[in-house]
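Reviewer comment 2.1 asked that we show a complete input and output for one of the modelled complexes. We chose the flavin-adenine dinucleotide case, as it is the one discussed in the main text.
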Amino acid sequence: MKSPSEEDWTRLDKAVAGTVVRPGESGFGAVSLPFNRRFAATVPAGVVSVASVVDVQRAIAWARELGVGVAVRGGGHSYAGYSVGPGLVIDLGPLNTVSANASTGLVTAGGGASMSDVYAAIEPCEMAFALGNGATVGIGGLTLGGGVGATSRVHGITADALVATTLVTADGEVLRCSADENPDLFWACRGGGGGNFGVNVSFTFQAQPVTDCATYVLLWHMEDAEKVFSVVQRTMRSAPDAFAARVGVSTTGPDAVVSCIGQHLGSAASLKEVLDPILSVAEPFRTMINDRTYWQAKNDLLHETAAGAFAARTSVLTQPLSEDAIDAMLAMVRRWPGGGNPDGGGAALFSWGGAINRVPAGDTAFPHRDAMFLLSMDTSWAERDSREVVDANLGWLAELADTMAPYGGDRSYLNFTDPDLKSWRTAYYGDNYPRLAEIKRRVDPDGFFTFEQGIGS
Ligand SMILES: Cc1cc2nc3c(=O)[nH]c(=O)nc-3n(C[C@H](O)[C@H](O)[C@H](O)COP(=O)(O)OP(=O)(O)OC[C@H]3O[C@@H](n4cnc5c(N)ncnc54)[C@H](O)[C@@H]3O)c2cc1C
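Response of the prediction step:
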């Protein structure tokens, strides 16, 4: 990759309506630091925060002319740090306008809008679609990688609600993609992963009217873990689509907490009926079950994370975990090596299925249309932790994933990106990978948009 001269940077700065910042300049950290500090050592040569579609075209043209690599930044939350690189970061942050039309249910979000930007626009219209539970997560990365939320068993994945997206390609063309226009690219933008085909400057979704609902938080001590995991999995077999659960075990050291958290698109009274077998198996030390408006529920489930550095591995499960598998998982969690991040380490099952599975696996690029749960295994550490602590955490996570491999499948969720995953092509995309690679060859023949787990690499 070439190093642009000072004149080159000045030329870019003059060419765009947005801003260009370089290392050491005011505001550089805010637009260059990845949310996952595991990748904080990657410092871009410059960041262009684009103010318009034309800015995106000019930034691409500038980078192409000079042979500079680019990374596209939406919300900056890539688990694998794929929105930062050593060259030019195209920061979509200023493209965060969201408009919502209550009569058509159509919601159009700029490519750099965050979850909170989208929620702020849709709440007054009392309509929604499946969204992520991190306020600063970007709509771009979420949608392009699929997007699973607490209402996905009713609403499908975020990408299922997408009806159109506008993309700036590697040769600067602006393409509208929908079922009727550039349908191949539209297919690829629903689960094919961000940063692969171009810069998505806007996304249009079809939202649904919201209903009141209920949320719950149940907590147990570690001694009840086996019983709780077993009963939640059994309950999910017959639970209505309206019910969603995340059952997890997490530890920050000497003790571990077992939790079952979720949302039900019905009343608290009907939620209690679904939860009855779970509540009867072991008494939680904390129980919260409440009627909620849709918007209160969204706030209840917002995941506040300590950030710092983290890593995750996932396994898409089509069957519940066996008792042996649960025992093996819990034994590994008891051996978590420790670290300075209050998020600790652990494992969780997210309920998938329902509406997600009513779309055929080849209809969109997101292939996991037969799953019952996503098993997510994760660990975290503080930036100040020593290399030994980091290595111990990554070693533990690899061992946990190896331990669980015989019980799960060989598929993973792209949006919980695992940069250490070797089989990522089939794990993330299944049978859809060859079509994605073919679309990539057509739309970006020179591989201008490239990164470690990029399509075609
Ligand atoms: C705290 C937290 C909560 C989360 N909650 C959920 C959840 O509830 N459900 C879920 O499914 N996932 C969730 N995730 C995972 C999340 O969906 C992914 O990390 C996602 O990739 C983040 O998107 P981003 O735009 O914020 O990240 P970025 O790092 O900016 O982007 C991720 C990838 O997409 C590309 N990209 C982003 N925007 C665009 C665009 N407009 N055009 C082209 N390429 C683009 C980037 O180049 C990069 O390759 C969560 C992650 C975190 C850290």
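The domain at 213-428 is CATH 3.40.462.20 (Vanillyl-alcohol Oxidase; Chain A, domain 3). We note this here for comparison with the apo prediction described in Section 3.2.
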